[in-house]
Amino acid sequence: MKYVNADVILPDHLIREIQKYVNGGMIYIPKPEDQHKKWGEASGGRKYLQQRNREIRLRFASGISIDQLAAQFCLSCHSIKKIVYSKPEE
Predict the structure, then answer these.
(1) pLDDT for the residue numbered 84
(2) Contact between 60 and 66 (Cβ < 8 Å)
(3) Is 46:38 a contact under the CB 8 Å cutoff?
(4) What is the 3-class SS of the chain, one letter each residue?
(5) Domain extents for the chain?
(6) Which pLDDT does position 57 carry in this prediction?
(7) In whole angstroms, what is the distance from residue 45 CA to residue 9 CA?
C-alpha cells in the first residue's frame, strides 16, 4: 500500500476535521464494501487452485487413488479427500 500525504489529495477543511481525531498519525481508509475482492482474485491464486482442484477431480474420476493424488500434488490424503468429495467452486 502506498503512502499518500493528505495535503496533496484532501481539501483543507477535511484535513482539519480529521485532525480532531488523528493528529500527526497515519490512518487506513478501506475500500467500500462493493469494491472488495475475494481472496486470491487479484493475485490469480484463486484461479490456480480452482484449476488444480479440477485436475485432481478429473484424475480421481479416471481411477487414480487418493494416495497417488496426494503424492502427485504434494498434499495430504485428507486434503485430497476434501477436494474430491466437495462441491466444485466456480
Answers:
(1) 96
(2) yes
(3) yes
(4) CCCCCHHHHCCHHHHHHHHCCCCCCCCCCCCCHHHCCCCCCCCCHHHHHHHHHHHHHHHHHCCCCHHHHHHHHCCCHHHHHHHHHCCCCC
(5) 6-85
(6) 97
(7) 33
Q: Mean of the per-residue pLDDT values for the chain? A: 90
pTM exceeds 0.70:
no
Cell triple for residue 5? 500525504
The span from the first CA to the last CA of the chain, in angstroms, equals 29
Three cell numbers, residue 62: 479416471
User: For 57, how many CA atoms within 13 A lie in the half-sphere containing its CB?
Assistant: 14
68, three cell numbers: 497417488
**Which residues 6+ apart lie within 8 Å of 26 measured at CB?**
3
Amino acid at 81: K
In this predicted structure, the answer to whether residue 1 has a pLDDT above a threshold of 80 is: no
